[in-house]
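Good morning C.,

I know you're traveling, so I'll keep this short. The sequence:
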Amino acid sequence: MLSKKNFILLFSCVPLYAQAFNGVYLTGSGEVSSGMGGVSLAQGMDRTSIQDNPANLSYQNNGVDAQISLLNIRSRATLLNQTEEFKSDKLIPIPSLALIKHYNDRLSFGLSLTGAGAAVDYDTPAIHGFPADNAKDNLAIAKASPTISYKILPNLSLGASLDMGVEQFRAKGILAGTDTQGTPIFLESYGNQWAYGIGGSLGATWEFQPNWWLGASYISEMRFSKLKKYKDDLLANSQGKINLPERYGVGVKHKLNSQFTLAADILRINWQDADGLGQKGSFNWQNQNVYRIGLDYKYTPKDDIRFGYSHADVVVDSQDTLVNFYANAIANNAWTIGYGRNLGFATLNIAYEYATNKKIMGSSNSSGTNLNNQNHVFTLGFSKDF
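The tokens, ready to paste straight into the viewer:
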């Protein structure tokens, strides 16, 4: 197990703050997949795809991918029928990294550093005009995944990753209810709390016909230690834990000719079983199916244009908008466009994503609490072969 010092050093290399569009996950993990709707499971569009399917390691060139994404996060909400709207606007840089080295024709090693999370800062108390802290919280997770793959056949690779994570959580201005006189009660703020987690990933990639790839992966629930200061109030239902959910999916990729490559994925994310986010927790997130498709068009030997679309089921039901006022991560449809340029010494990749506006009107006990969220992502990356 890594020491706390090493975990903090790792955490400084990847996102300190993130808002994602599949719950706590970004639509695309890599600089190329970010322009193609997030497709990544079959053979991979870039090196960072090894964190989605470790078997892709065998099919990517020796080298490094480094990228930074700039997120413009726009969340709106109403709470308990208050007439004044709550607004949260953020501009956040998110870096990531992937390294690949082939030992021989069959055995390969790699490492990916990626992140996940969600956050909101309404810059005002949850009850307008009440003397309390501003309503905000932040969940940031950094994951390091040393990866190995092996080609058991020339056209079939199996891969595995050890997923190690560090988690930072803080919450402030959390409205817990009212006392017998109707005075709002707010939970105590404990500042940043840290937890450490572990999980694993398995994958397979198969070139079943020339220029046709099929990929499948399974990623276990990442189980974290307790965020100790929050275990007796805000996270009491999950005993202070916020875990990343189990995920699994399949994908297909086809290189139609020298110019066009098409890929598609179907992914399942089991939020309900994840402590802290699902039924055993504070937010009651629902399980999610994700469907994504992407196209790469090489219009010159050095230039690529990319397009993509991703649709995901909404994780928040209308009856749960109240408990998700502090977890307003509901955008679920994203359109993407990307561009790649071979510079000779390296390849430049840029991408833009628009996660379209999503609104959920509260019902039942959540009536009067409505959520609204849309996001923009700009990605800049460099890829270099060794």
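Safe travels,
E.
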